[in-house]
Design goal:
This protein has about 70 residues and is mostly helical. It is about 60% helix and about 0% strand.
Length: about 70
């Protein structure tokens, strides 16, 4: 399954960049991640998208910085 994911991602990047791409994939496994609800939630892409949109909203609410 990991090989298929990597192959499809590489093909998409090559099409986007119009050049050959070497894509190295690394997997890090946390011990007992299946038994840890927080770890499982962190892997949920819906949760990750929520975090990104929250971070973007926070950035847009910041007042503009003054430059010298």
């Amino acid at each position: 399954m990991l090989k298929k994911i990597g192959t499809e991602a590489r093909k998409e990047l090559e099409a986007l960049l119009d050049t050959k791409v070497f894509l190295g994939l690394f997997v890090k496994v946390a011990p007992d991640w299946r038994e840890n609800p927080q770890r499982v939630r962190e892997l949920d892409w819906h949760f990750q998208l929520e975090g990104l949109s929250t971070a973007q909203a926070d950035q847009s609410e910041e007042p503009p910085r003054e430059t010298e």
